[in-house]
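re: that complex we talked abt at group meeting.

here r the seqs, copy pasted straight from the sheet so there may be weird spacing, ignore it
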Amino acid sequence: GNSVTQMEGPVTLSEEAFLTINCTYTATGYPSLFWYVQYPGEGLQLLLKATKADDKGSNKGFEATYRKETTSFHLEKGSVQVSDSAVYFCALSDGETSGSRLTFGEGTQLTVNP
Amino acid sequence: GAGVSQTPSNKVTEKGKYVELRCDPISGHTALYWYRQSLGQGPEFLIYFQGTGAADDSGLPNDRFFAVRPEGSVSTLKIQRTERGDSAVYLCASGHGGVVTGELFFGEGSRLTVL
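got the structure back, here u go
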């Protein structure tokens, strides 16, 4: 079956530090890949996505590249801000079952200190 | 607002009781999903509706869990004979369905606590 593995958290960084959150996946076929973010007190929201190999998703300074050869979709940001403190979830949609059912990783808690 | 609305936001109940959780999706979204999120875990799929019908209910843990969407809009997740292990945040999401794009819009969730 499909699965997503994220680096264990929590992650604590100082403002303006470089961020990497690792994500690897197992899936049949050609999944679409996503990063969702959950800010304190809010619902999950889509941060970025990539639908095929070598695509790069980007939003709000975050980037992730779909690497089929390493089955990875690592999230990066060059300079984090206090407002980026949240829980980040990597997810995939296998695109082969009815609907766009998402399989999520366990989430990585990020805290950015001023 | 125009987002996914879930009620109640918090529900505390006793073991053995019946619970209903409601989801009001974004207008026009034909696909509706229920997920369950336990503390420190990612959301786990429960059931998917396309229109009024349950297209995939393979994530429902057992027959105590049931969900309906009678008019293709609002959905209700029903849990019978609740157990302490049912305590979690129940998330609802809606989208345009179909494959590939996969963007879902989530509500803030209903936190269920079974004492």
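couple things i noticed - Chain A has a mean pLDDT of 92. Residues 24 and 72 of chain A are 4 Å apart (CA to CA).
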